[in-house]
Amino acid sequence: MIFTSDNGPWTVKGPDGGSAGPLRGAKGSTWEGGVRVPTVAWWPGRVQAGRECAAMAGTIDLLPTVVALAGGTVPAEPVIDGRDISGLLLGTATESPREAHAYFRGDALEAVRAGRWKLAIAPQVESMGSKTMEPATIDRPRLYDLEADLGERTDVASRHPEVVARLAEVALRIERELCGPKAPGRRPAGTVAEAVFLYPVAAAGPAGRGRAPAPAP
C-alpha cells in the first residue's frame, strides 16, 4: 500500500487550504511547498517499518516501480519519465535513480534539482493566482541548498559556480528534450477507445456539462 497526497496547500482557501510548514510556496508553484508531499509505504515483511527515506522520488515513479515489483519490465518505447524506486522502498538503495528532478509549471521548466541542490532558471510565483514572482533566468539563476535551507530563502549561486554550471546544463538538456511543440520527448495525450465512465452519467447538457443521473426508483 502506498499513501501520498495532492501537492501543496491551497492558500486561496485560507486556513482551510492547509499549510506547507517550513517550506516556501504553495499549490501552483514550483517552490518546495508547492510540490513536496509526504508518502507512506506499507508492505509487511518487505518494507521495513519505521524506516525513513529522503531520496528524491515522485508519483511518476510508481508505474515502473509496481511493474518491477510484479516481476515485469516497462517497454523501452515510448520512453516514460518514471524510474524504478523499488530499491528505495525495500531498503536496498539510498540514492535516487533519477539524475535530476524537473519542476514544470504548465509546459515551462522553472527549476531542476539534483540531491541537495535546486537551481531556479525562471521566475517562480508563490502560489496559484499569485502575482508575486521571484525572478530568475538560465543566465542568472538562483541556487538553493535544500539541506541547509529547506525554506529556499538564501540564494547561494555566487558561492557554488560549479554546481550552477552543472545544473544549468541539465536544465538545458531537459528543455531541448521536452520543451516546445517539436521537442523530441513531447508526446501527445493518450486516448482510450470506447471509453466509459466508472459511474453512470447523463449526456452533456446544453452548457456542455454532464448531469448526475436521477436516483434509482
Notes on the structure:
The longest helix has 18 residues, at 161-178. With 217 residues, this protein is of the alpha+beta class. The chain has four helices and eight strands, in the order E-H-E-H-H-E-E-E-E-E-E-H. The protein has one domain (2-178): Arylsulfatase, C-terminal domain (2-Layer Sandwich). Strands 3-4-5-8 form a four-stranded antiparallel sheet, covered by helices on one side. It has a two-stranded antiparallel ribbon with strand order 1-2.
Report the CATH architecture.
Answer: 2-Layer Sandwich
How large is the count of helical segments? 4
Mean pLDDT: 88
Poorly predicted segments: 207-217
Give the amount of beta strand, in percent. 5-15%
What are the key terms here?
217 residues, alpha+beta, Arylsulfatase, C-terminal domain, four-stranded antiparallel beta sheet, 16% helix, 13% strand, disordered C terminus
Helix/strand layout:
Elements lengths: L1 E2 L28 H4 L4 E2 L20 H8 L16 H5 L10 E5 L2 E7 L2 E4 L3 E2 L7 E2 L7 E4 L15 H18 L39
Summary, kept brief:
The chain has 217 residues and is of the alpha+beta class. The chain has helices at 32-35, 62-69, 86-90, 161-178; strands at residues 2-3, 40-41, 101-105, 108-114, 117-120, 124-125, 133-134, 142-145.
